[in-house]
# Entry
Amino acid sequence: MAITTEAQNTVIFFDTTLRDGEQSPGATLSSAEKLEIARQLSRLGVDVIEAGFPAASPDDLKAVQRIAQEVGTADGPVICGLARAVEGDILTCWEGVKDAAKPRIHTFLGTSDIHLQYQTGMTRQQALEVIRKSVTLARSLCDDVEFSPMDAGRTDPEFLIQVCALAVECGATTLNIPDTVGYVTPQEWYETIENLIQETPGAGPGSGIIWSVHCHNDLGLATANTLAGVRAGARQVEVTINGIGERAGNTSLEEVVMALHTRPQYYGLHTNINTREIMKTSRMVSNYTGMHVQPNKAVVGSNAFAHEAGIHQDGVLKHSSTYEIMTPESVGLAQSQLVLGKHSGRHALKVRLQELGYSVEGDALNQVFARFKELADAKKTVTDADLEALIADEFHGPEEIFSLEDIQVTCGTMGMPTATVKLRNAKDEEFIHAAVGTGPVDAAFRSIDGIINAPNTLTEYSVHSVTEGIDALGEVTVRISTPEGNQMFGGYGADSDVIVASVKAYLAAVNRMLAVIGYDDQQPEGDVAAIGVKSEH
Ligand code: KIV
Ligand code: ZN
# Structure
């Protein structure tokens, strides 16, 4: 059954972190990570999860199917899959979502003259024919069908109305209007959406059709444009956690939700989002995708509730409303800063992890308990953020083609920074390699490169501490690209030793790259053979 917005005062949150978000360069997620994010999105209260693009690959299809089966329960969210407006995609999409209690097919076609001329080579008439066939097919399979005229922001307004009217006539229940390239401005977008709602035959107020907006952030206007669309009458917003997505990203879920919640008099609209789950979801997505959240990011950045100027601190101490328009608690921050310490046992850890949304049992629990004890010895109190970082580090990464056994570095002012790394491959063979570099991290990465024949360019390296204090856990995210620069891969690592965290992050990124481009497990000749030592078993 398609969702309706009863009194037209509820905004439907359609989360596309697992589809458009995963299209962020370097943000590839494993199926297990997608499933766990989907579960967290359900706890967050999103109404629709766009779980992926089933026709993109057999793995994408399987990931969507699992989410449909395990998260798409009767009281859970709608599970949606994306499909190009072609028969094969739509049939595969249905295979992906059909096991959900509330499945949706989302199909799209570029409708701007630019897309028609340069991408699909279709005339407007041909595009209309394709839309007719694809929406009709989707609706024959599924009661809940969303249609998107891609690049609507640059589509001729008259043609856009024609396209939307046709999609409704063929059975679409949601009309999503995308500003695919982040081109429009808020007032303009307000007028576009208002005009579409008024002028599209069969889709006006009372028709039951849900109007939706999907904005990209190329000019930094995604949230403003989305809210303008809502003011004009859109009742579905397409968003991602932390605003990740193609190029400069999509609209951030957390920004739109908190705008609606913080300004109820202005918007007068309700959402089903449990805002207290926002921080947890943000950290999970950031850890799994390796896409670090900038400190000054609205709502979820580490500085979002930090006050630096004396006058601000003075005001907040007297009354938080002086400089805070929402409370940290309302987005799930500072709910329990002090969690566990070195005297806490396995049971307390398990319960806390469950409260954080992670179900960890058996060997996995033993593993995380051992890491927790080490950390608690080093830093007295272990916070939720520490636990989330440990979980991400321990269990979430790509399939390990190579895993880290040991790392040893020497560095300082008296010699050349040198690192020795020992890795193990899937055949249980060990490889040791030593290298010098400009610093210990560089030397460690070169040691890995000496063992694994996977040329790449390091495009980003960032390290930050999970909590405050000298004993804090260090989190490292890296991004690498293939030498041609056409594919990017991210990696994440956490450890109280930042060199170890760096090596884990780099290795995770390299493993991701190898999983995609394939790996010839012939070790390189020459240098490596000379320096690398294959240890005896
Ligand atoms: O940006 C876009 O146009 C999209 C569509 C597939 C909705 O992501
Ligand atoms: Zn998009």
